[in-house]
């Protein structure tokens, strides 16, 4: 039996469906609107900019959905030779069913639709699920990152308390020397004490293992804070470094949120290479884990390098305290942005893996897929 057109559908059904769709859409729009007002009221400019990028991504997904819906009748009537569909298949299929379905749409014998209506429907769902999961994943990441940084707040409070005590006592030693002596010497001793820690291979192994437990300890935070303050704010030792780190996280989040053009290119490349027998999805799952371990080890090794340079400065008898000097040269090719781009790709790749899983899960429901969904390797 043919599906009923809109003119043969009861008006109460049409009105009920429209009411639900419009209500959900308006509720989501109002939620984002009031969230933006709250961020502006709290002067969270970077988070507000990130929210605007999320809105742009949702708008792009809506435009893609509109294009697919508008062009689906044109796409399904494009016919190609049936032999062109024999290679680069993601799963095995029965060719006689393809020929039978193609005969319904294509007039020329031996031709099949360029993309079936069911396949177009599944692709539509995949793009929507991918975008939705990526938005949720980015929001979860910034929440967990903020929770991690909030754990450092009591360290910052303790440093300010020590500074106030030293001012009251009136120690003759300059305050910047006390900061370097107390905060940086502990880091140097932890990262460089012992001859075996000076070896490059050993330092990389330690950096790799440290990312799994207490990746940023109290001595790391205090040493990096004192180095930053002494370089940029030498006359303000009570500078709120924790607040600065929070704003830096928000600024970096604004740069990694959203799906850039090269990430969409990655999705297209995956769809192209997801061929039966290649197990592309299985091997691709190891890529974000590998990159995450490499980036984590690199960041830990940078802290170790800073400690080694500070220890080397003690060899100079003119230096009474360690001298930590943060520098971009410790990053790959002297560009910290490479690490940020890798983190952006890792976030997207994780969201892609989760989105792909939910997509296959959604297709398993017969109400969303006209036919039994194929198995994906």
From TrEMBL:
The keyword Transmembrane helix applies. GO terms for cellular component: membrane. Coiled coil: none annotated. Keywords: Membrane, Pathogenesis-related protein, Plant defense, Transmembrane, Transmembrane helix. GO terms for biological process: defense response. Pfam families: Mlo. The chain crosses the membrane at residues 12-32, 58-80, 123-144, 256-275, 281-299, 338-362. It is a multi-pass membrane protein. InterPro entries: Mlo. It is found in: Membrane. Belongs to the MLO family. This is MLO-like protein. It comes from Aegilops tauschii subsp. strangulata.
């Amino acid at each position: 039996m043919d599906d009923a057109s809109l003119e043969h559908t009861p008006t109460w059904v049409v009105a009920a469906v429209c009411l639900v769709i419009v209500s959900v859409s308006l509720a989501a729009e109002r939620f984002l609107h009031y969230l933006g007002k709250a961020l502006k009221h709290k002067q969270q400019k970077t988070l507000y900019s990130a929210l605007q990028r999320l809105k742009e991504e949702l708008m792009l997904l809506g435009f893609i959905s509109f294009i697919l819906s508008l062009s689906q009748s044109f796409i399904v009537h494009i016919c190609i030779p049936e032999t062109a569909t024999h290679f680069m298949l993601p799963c095995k299929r029965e060719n006689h069913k393809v020929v039978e379905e193609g005969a319904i749409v294509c007039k020329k014998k031996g031709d099949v639709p360029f993309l079936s209506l069911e396949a177009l429907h599944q692709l539509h769902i995949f793009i929507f699920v991918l975008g939705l999961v990526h938005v949720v994943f980015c929001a979860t990441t910034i929440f967990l990152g903020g929770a991690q940084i909030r754990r450092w707040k009591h360290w910052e409070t303790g440093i300010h308390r020590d500074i106030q005590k030293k001012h009251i006592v009136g120690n003759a030693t300059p305050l910047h020397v006390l900061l370097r002596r107390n905060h940086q010497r502990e880091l140097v001793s932890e990262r460089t004490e012992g001859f075996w820690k000076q070896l490059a291979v050993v330092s990389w192994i330690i950096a790799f293992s440290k990312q799994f437990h207490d990746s940023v300890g109290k001595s790391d935070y205090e040493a990096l804070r004192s180095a930053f303050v002494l370089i940029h704010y030498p006359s303000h030792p009570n500078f709120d470094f924790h607040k600065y780190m929070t704003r830096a996280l928000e600024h970096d989040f604004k740069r990694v949120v959203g799906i850039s053009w090269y990430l969409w290119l990655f999705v297209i490349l995956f769809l192209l290479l997801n061929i039966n027998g290649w197990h592309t999805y299985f091997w691709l799952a190891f890529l974000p884990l590998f990159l995450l371990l490499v980036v984590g080890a690199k960041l830990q090794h940078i802290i170790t390098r800073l400690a080694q340079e500070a220890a080397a400065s003690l060899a100079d008898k003119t230096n009474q305290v360690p001298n930590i000097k943060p520098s971009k040269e410790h990053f790959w090719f002297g560009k910290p942005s490479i690490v940020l781009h890798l983190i952006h790709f890792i976030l997207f790749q994780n969201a892609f893996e989760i989105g792909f899983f939910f997509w296959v899960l959604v297709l398993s429901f017969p109400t969303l897929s006209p036919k039994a969904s194929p198995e994906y390797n």
